[in-house]
Amino acid sequence: MSQNEQVLSYPIPSEAALEPPAEWAELRRQCPVARITLPSGDEAKLLTRYEDVKQVLADPRFTRLLNAPDAARLSDNESGGVFNTEMAQIIPDSGEGHQRWRRLVGKYFTAKRMAALRPVMAEIAERLIDDMVKRGGPGDLKASLGFPLPVYVICDLLGVPATDRDRFAHWSDALLNLTRYSQAETDAAQAEFVQYMSDHVAAKREQPGDDLLSALIKESAAEGQGLTDVELLVTGMALLVAGHETTANMIGKMVSMLLVDRTRWERLLADPSLVRSAVEESLRFDANSGFGLPRYLKEETEVDGTVLPRGTTVICSMAAANRDESVFDGADDMDLSRSPNPHLAFGSGAHSCLGQSLARTELQVVLEVLLRRLPSLRLAVPVEELRRVDGLVVGGLREVPVHW
């Protein structure tokens, strides 16, 4: 097909919950910079090759702010969800301001600090599995374990009561909205979330605890150039949304990928030392990671021989890039011992995911505990009956029915 004339609707639908759309391979081969129409009706460019996606994510000329007048709107909502709110503009997008924010917040998410949280995570996982087993099978692994575990962990980190987790779920869904919520619903959720988090920051100023926000407040006071109240508020909101939604979905997808071909699960039972590489391969192999990362081009540049004018909005599909045969041998095979595995699931460059050590640790712990506690785990429905989450910028499965 001649892609130059054809404009694809985006996101590209996929019939199967765990399989990539057939178009990805064709786009990588024939049209790595493709024209697409977003849910808003606006046009953008889609990148599907590994090197291109990596280049754009690391290039400071591509900004993540989509509030320029000529930037494509992602959805038909004015808010454009999480990429286009006033909130998104408070944490600096680039330069020294962005580096300062990452330095202040990032040191609380190092691999070393996350390793120290492993016993707490394992304890939470054990407790949630106990509850699921008590209720009897079949159970929904996403609702019983995938969703609550990251919420408990991030609430713990931020010093927020885990009893509020259903409210967080609604607020973050609304902020991750693509086509599911109306403008009024998105605005109302955001206003409630802002109010909640500003009250929480004020309470932590009055009475600091042993948590991340209290530590950031203390540091800001000591240094005199830490985070302002508004930056603290937005940081808290951003970490709550990012810290639970993506990992909650990934737990369900990872377990489904490992159970859909039972030999994968059995290989891990036989050799639990493969858990780390299996988590990395699940992240690479995930064909349902969501919308991808949008970037707005502040000046003309060239990608893969195509000149992109200033004002172009580009969507980087990390999931399509992670299936690029030129980088990953047997890219369409799930190889649990794959090494090295330089996947782009957490992005690349200065904006790579701040919480990747947290996500990796949670996924490893969940897998270790499940293999030990429920070795006979299996999907309770045929893979054809697994249903994708629709209408949000993150990808996931609506439920993951399992027997054990």
Automatic annotation (TrEMBL):
SUPFAM superfamilies membership = Cytochrome P450
* CDD domains from the UniProt entry: Cyp158A-like (cd11031)
The family database entries (InterPro entries) matched by this protein are listed as: Cyt_P450, Cyt_P450_B, Cyt_P450_CS, Cyt_P450_sf
Q: Which UniProt keywords apply?
A: Heme, Iron, Metal-binding, Monooxygenase, Oxidoreductase
Q: Which domain of life is it from?
A: Bacteria
PANTHER family from the UniProt entry: P450, PUTATIVE (EUROFUNG)-RELATED
Report the family membership: Belongs to the cytochrome P450 family.
Q: Please report the name of this protein according to its UniProt entry.
A: Cytochrome P450
